[in-house]
Specification:
With 223 residues, the chain is an alpha/beta fold. The chain contains 3 helices and 12 strands. The relative contact order is 0.17.
Length: 223
């Protein structure tokens, strides 16, 4: 049996309000994002899943601070030492509008067990008999979705990994009211053993095989 940890919307580096953490001198909400992610990593190290899938918005911005980058690298290196693969897609918060801006995810390419999908296109990552069909936040979600749907190589276990708002599953569309949200219909997410979604911050079962992990912290009073 394959054990997968599904996480999303960690928004590392987020800060808000004026409260300062006395121990570090940093913004309290920024520290909260670090603490929540470290708790997740510690849980993963203790339970040793076969892989971790991060469904986008690992960072809160396109240009995270050196402090945020250093923290994430430290946590990913810890996972790497434990031999736990980590697959992550870029979300709308960390995807630059201009390609020449570059991506923070390029820093992860030298870590053996980290697989970052961020280059504006659909990719398949294969790990231990599992095909992860990953679509990062991209300029042409319809075009990349067609690549996903036209890939009929579904041997082994197949998991779809996306950062998007799903519609067509009842009355609710899972929007966050952000200007660059991407939408995908629930009927386009059929034929997979599991669909790991990010973007919507509430843990939600959309369908028996389709879930939003929710965020690891709360980022508004509405949440």
């Amino acid at each position: 049996m394959i054990r997968i940890f599904h996480v999303a919307d960690t928004h590392i580096g987020y800060s808000a309000y004026r409260k300062i953490d006395e121990a570090t001198g940093l913004n309290q909400r920024e520290v909260d994002t670090y603490d929540a992610f470290k708790q997740f990593i510690d849980r993963a190290i203790a339970e040793t899943p076969d892989m971790i899938l991060h469904a986008g918005d690992l960072f809160d911005s396109v240009r995270p601070t050196n402090r945020a980058i250093s923290f994430v690298l430290e946590q990913l290196l810890t996972l790497n030492e434990a031999g736990i693969p980590f697959v992550v897609i870029s979300g709308n918060h960390e995807t630059p509008r201009l390609k020449e801006t570059g991506s923070v995810f390029s820093l992860f390419e030298h870590i053996p067990n980290v697989h970052a999908v961020y280059k504006d296109s659909y990719e398949v990552v294969e790990l231990d008999g599992v095909k992860i069909h990953a679509i990062p936040h991209c300029g042409d979600i319809e075009g990349e979705k067609q690549k996903l749907l036209s890939n009929d190589d579904r041997t082994g276990l197949n998991v779809a990994l996306l950062h998007a708002s799903v519609y067509g599953a009842g009355k609710q569309t899972f929007l966050m009211d952000e200007f660059n949200e991407q939408l995908i219909a629930i009927h386009d997410l059929s034929g997979f053993d599991y669909v790991a979604l990010g973007h919507y911050h509430g843990y939600t079962r959309v369908r028996d095989d389709v879930y939003y992990a929710g965020s690891t912290e709360r980022f508004s009073f509405n949440e």
